[in-house]
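Summary of Year 1 activities. Much of the first year was spent building the evaluation harness for sequence design. The harness presents a backbone, in tokenized form, and records the residue chosen at every position. We chose the following record to illustrate the format because it has been used consistently in internal testing since the harness was completed.
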């Protein structure tokens, strides 16, 4: 069975809401999911999961929040399968800074898929993008898993 750790940081609730939509999509696809809100409680052991999904909002002119940086340090390694999503607001910095935390994390983890970038809330038309991205994550992981056997 496919298992995912979704670790996310959220202040306004937008990243948490996106994480829940991703969880729902993965579970509908047959995966098991463990949710971890970054900054609350001990960091789960990434080795207990087939893949990790990291979600972050973008802060302070395109920066990754300190609690997300701390999470990355606490994990201590770059797990093999990491996917990234982020929420942001083009109102602050335009397209150049939009979801830069997600872009930086995806680059750091050498994520096989482009990060999902959501403008503020994942509601409305963006909900489809979240679902499609999560289905793509599941398809990618399954394809890699099939190739190993």
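For this record, the design step produced the sequence shown next.
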């Amino acid at each position: 069975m496919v298992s995912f750790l979704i670790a996310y940081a959220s202040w306004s609730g937008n990243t948490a809401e996106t994480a829940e939509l991703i969880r729902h999509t993965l579970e509908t696809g047959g995966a098991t999911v463990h949710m971890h809100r970054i900054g609350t409680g001990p960091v789960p052991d990434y080795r207990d999961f087939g893949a990790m999904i990291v979600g972050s909002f973008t802060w302070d002119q395109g920066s990754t929040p300190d609690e997300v940086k701390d999470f990355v340090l606490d994990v201590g390694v770059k797990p093999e399968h990491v996917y990234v999503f982020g929420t942001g607001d083009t109102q602050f910095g335009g397209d150049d800074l939009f979801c830069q935390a997600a872009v930086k994390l995806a680059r750091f983890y050498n994520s096989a898929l482009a990060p999902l970038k959501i403008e503020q809330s994942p509601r409305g038309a963006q909900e489809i993008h979240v679902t499609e991205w999560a289905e793509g994550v599941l398809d990618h992981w399954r394809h890699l898993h099939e190739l190993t056997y």
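The beta strands are 3-8, 32-37, 51-57, 82-88, 116-119. Quantitative recovery figures across the full test set are reported in Table 2.
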